[in-house]
Amino acid sequence: MNEKENSKHDYLWDGSGEPEIEIQRLESVLGRLRHDPELHPASRWPEPEGFRDRWRDWLRLPRLAPVLAAVALVIVASLLLRSPRVQPTAETAQTAWEVANLAGAPRIGASRMGRTGHLAVGELLETDSNSRANVRVGQIGEVEVEPSTRLRLVAARPTEDRLALDRGTIHTFISAPPRLFFVNTPAAVAVDLGCAYTLQVDDHGIGLLRVTFGWVEFETHGQQSLIPSGAAALTKPGFDPGTPYFEDATDAFKSALEKLDFETLSPADRNRALQTLLAEARKRDGFTLLYLLRQYRGMSESERGLIFDRLAELIPPPAGVLRERVARGDDYMIGLWWDLMGVGHPKKK
Amino acid sequence: MHSLRAWEGTAGELALSAMVEGLDFAAPVGKSRSVTALPETENPRAEASLAAAARDGDRGAFGELYSKYARVVHGILLARIPPADVDDLVHDVFLHAMRKLKALRDENAFAGWLAAIARNRATDYHRRSTELVELQEDCAQENPPRAEALAILAVIRILPEAYREPLILRLVEGLTGPEIAARTGLTPGSVRVNLHRGMQQLREKLGQQPGEKS
User: Fold this and answer.
1) Where are the domains of chain A?
2) Which A residues, 98 through 117, put their C-beta within 8 Å of a C-beta on chain B?
3) The pTM is what?
4) Has the ipTM of the complex gone over 0.90?
5) Out of B20, B119, B212, whose CB is closest to A21?
């Protein structure tokens, strides 16, 4: 095999080429922890209700066929004889989402809901201080609605599912391609990029988005904050989205960041806030510092230089990444540094 | 302000892919790069059909998906929770997936969807438990070969999160890079980058020198 052919092989990547002895040894030792398929064979799983082949098996039993037919007849007859009641129309069945009452007496529009209900486009779901609800987001996920929350269904289309959270708290779990599910808040729009998150809005329209896993984007006026798992970001009406931060950062760090993001500070106060932020930053907060470098919120080149220096102490930049280029917001160089943070990237559509 | 989206997974991934592939490090972003073809055993279309059948209630199809993805789920969990609890949680993840499969809109996204469930269950695990069982305790009670494996696993688990998962899927579960990409929904480029960077950091932590060949 000549040198050119050999260079195409990469044992770590796909097992091709000459094995590397230390990788082979690691495979051998760590392979002892490999998944054992005999521990939980699929055949031993309990079968959830409604799984199709159970019904198939039942229907295959000839002696049960007459019984099932009789039961079906009774059910159909009883449905026909019952007094008419409000059912979702064909139109609302497509555009209304199922809502389950989890506690208390949530309201849909002006009506108190029973055990279940439907939220149509344009309708309002409200919980008081004692009630909670669960909303099924079409076929892609769920939203749990906490007490004292006011939520509207804005759109329910194959290409866009959109809620508006006027106030309160929701927890979302969405399994869908990015950019199908949106939540409007008074200050920004939360854009699902494949994730679970909690979104809170207070009576002043101030929003806090906390990502459980995956990624979420906060958008307003064309500006975005991308928030990874374990991180959070604030939004305030009239401002760009706040810079994302990891929630385990120190209170002093978070307070300084909030000042820089949302307050009009004198040069002295601004410098004080920046110095606090840099002093309190841990290695993990390098993500936030890199994000600040990436933004242009009236930050001078000298301020960005200070951020570069602190970030370089915490996470040395990759070879070739230059201070002056990063301070000017060079996407390529910041991208190289970003990869060292270990926070990954949102999934692509 | 420029959009951060502009550099999501581009510059860094491409640069390291380029280094790994022996290409020009300084080549402009966006130039074509070689894409490793999936091995013949990976057939996304067939797996999407399986996911669709499973979503419609075909238990046999779900069993096949389990056979294909159990190692991936196991590896994802092993990167995040104590090894002693991983097997039970693998089972839990598949049961949860079975119940929630109807919510999967795009069957082509099954791999990423299942991986997300596994990561979420790991997060739930930490929320519920106080993590009293730590790796050191596991090691002390284990036989020597398994203790050695747990000790190395402990080192992998202190690496950045993005590196842990691909390294464990490669070294513990025995998947190749293309298989990891196909079965987690990640791009081959980012898996390759993270495998190599993770391996480099693991070597440093274990005190090994890169480049030793048999």
Assistant:
1) 52-81, 91-242, 249-349
2) none
3) 0.49
4) no
5) B212
